[in-house]
Amino acid sequence: HLLKLIASGYHLSETGALLSLSEEQTKSLRRSIMRKLHVKTEQQFLKYIRVNLHFLLSK
């Protein structure tokens, strides 16, 4: 759900609120996902989501 919300343009704090997570938990989850995807910056992360996970936006 986190990736779908980020791909939809939600800010991290909004995403956390929608998922009933603290901002720190949301940041930690994002960092974990970024490590698994081997991306280092938020810009690379957003680009990865847009390019490779575009199907998230169609649901």
Automatic annotation (TrEMBL):
* Keyword hit for Magnesium: no
Which superkingdom, per the lineage?
Answer: Bacteria
SMART domains (alphabetical): HTH_LUXR
User: Which GO molecular-function terms appear in the entry?
Assistant: DNA binding
Q: InterPro entries annotated for this entry?
A: Sig_transdc_resp-reg_C-effctor (IPR016032), Tscrpt_reg_LuxR_C (IPR000792), WH-like_DNA-bd_sf (IPR036388)
Q: Which residues form the HTH luxR-type domain?
A: 1-53
Q: Which GO terms describe its biological process?
A: regulation of DNA-templated transcription
Ordered alphabetically, the record's keywords are: DNA-binding
Tell me which Gene3D superfamilies the record gives: Winged helix-like DNA-binding domain superfamily/Winged helix DNA-binding domain
Name of the protein in question: Fimbriae biosynthesis transcriptional regulator FimW
Write down the species: Salmonella enteritidis
